[in-house]
Amino acid sequence: MIRVVLPAHLRKLAHVEREVKLDVEGQVTQRSVLDALEARYPMLRGTIRDHATQRRRPFVRFFACEQDLSQEPPDAPLPDAVATGGEPFLVVGAMAGG
Amino acid sequence: MSGVRVLVGTRKGGFILASDGKRSRWDVSGPLFGGWEIYHLKGSPADPNRLYASQGTSWFGQLIQRSNDGGETWEPVGNRFVYDGVPGTHLWYDGTPHPWEFARVWHLEPSLTDPDTVYAGVEDAALFRSTDGGQTWQELPGLRNHESASSWQPGAGGMCLHTILQHPGDAGRMFVAISSAGTFRSDDAGGTWRPINRGLRSEQIPNPTAEVGHCVHRIAMHGSRPGVLFMQKHWDVMRSDDAGESWQEVSGNLPSDFGFPIDVHAHEPDTIYVVPIKSDSEHYPPEGKLRVYRSRTGGHEWEALTKGLPQRDCYVNVLRDAMAVDSLDSCGVYFGTTGGQVYASADAGDSWAPIVRDLPAVLSVEVQTLP
Lengths: 98, 371
Known about the structure:
The structure holds two protein chains of two kinds.
Chain A: E1 2-5, H1 8-14, E2 19-22, H2 30-40, E3 60-64, E4 67-68, H3 80-83, E5 89-93
Parallel strand pairs in A: 1-5
Antiparallel strand pairs in A: 1-2, 3-4, 3-5
Chain B: E1 3-10, E2 13-20, E3 27-32, E4 37-43, E5 51-57, E6 61-67, E7 75-76, E8 89-91, E9 97-99, E10 104-110, E11 118-123, E12 126-130, E13 138-139, E14 160-166, E15 174-179, E16 182-186, E17 194-195, E18 216-221, E19 229-233, E20 237-240, E21 248-249, E22 262-264, E23 272-274, E24 292-295, E25 303-305, E26 323-325, E27 333-336, E28 342-345, E29 353-356, E30 362-370
Antiparallel strand pairs in B: 1-2, 1-30, 2-3, 4-5, 5-6, 6-7, 8-9, 10-11, 11-12, 12-13, 14-15, 15-16, 16-17, 18-19, 19-20, 20-21, 22-23, 23-24, 24-25, 26-27, 27-28, 28-29
């Protein structure tokens, strides 16, 4: 079970609480987690990753285990603590603008 | 009793302002989608309970919301706006090629006859259509594939397709306007397009009378006379009597012919409204006086409408999508400002009163006249 924390705007859009729990098949990576997230909550498609390129939107960041994983390749394994559900994967709106 | 519903898009959410036919007391509801930019809300002419909203932020991109009950409840629908084929390039502000990139939906235009069909004008400029109530979107690529498209450049607000007009009697004929490429017409339901900018003159481009490159801010038509178009250009108020084949300037005695919105009275096809703005670098009314100007002669001769509007120390702007008219017997006129006021006139502009004064900056105003 993977834990994902969403920013307020996306929680409201998906009608979920602060933390979402997901089952992810196979290796736990940014891509597999986001695929599972979007499969469960289709209204989030396009809000975290660009529809066409599947790249992270510029003002979205990914944190976990007190690390910034935003620049990691999408198919790189996430930390074991995320893969085992010990720590959440955080989707964060960049701190830009008021 | 008949009534009106005013749909207001702002920098931080959407609002619905409702009144009966007297238009003197208003219920204000909102914000809808608080914290998000709502570029545009519009209702279907074929089903007034069907509303569409363009919702977005720089953080989380574009969403489209749909209501089937007049705005009581909403559901997100499709937000996949992907250009057809390889999008290519247009020109950037400095004249260098720049890849076509989707940024946002500026304008949603529901079909005149089918609530499930809706057009979307987007930045970077392109026209999309949904025929399933917004669930899926397909580009009408004939516009962006026009031979001139690689030379289109953005205006200050981005390279946006901001106006979509449908001919009420000819389903094949449509008009769109793009900042800053100009106005285009299709006679085959959006399959192919050609620029219709003859008569426009823009000193900001190398060839002031070029076929494309004009910063058209808004075009408007009256449904009973769809061959006549009115235009607020970057500078100049223009008129065409031949469906855009040629344009003549009708700025007349306006204190400034720079501005953004233009609209037509619901029952008088030659009565038009603009809001003069001082200049392209000073986006506020001349002399700090917020004045709507009305022409009852289709241009050339204009009168200032000031009753109820601030006539000193007013430095707001009125954006291109932020004016609308209702179709009650005494035509109502509405506009919103970047200062967050929405003003209404129930007497065709003779007098005005604010419905609300302190919304976030208003991006768009639309009106539904309800039975």
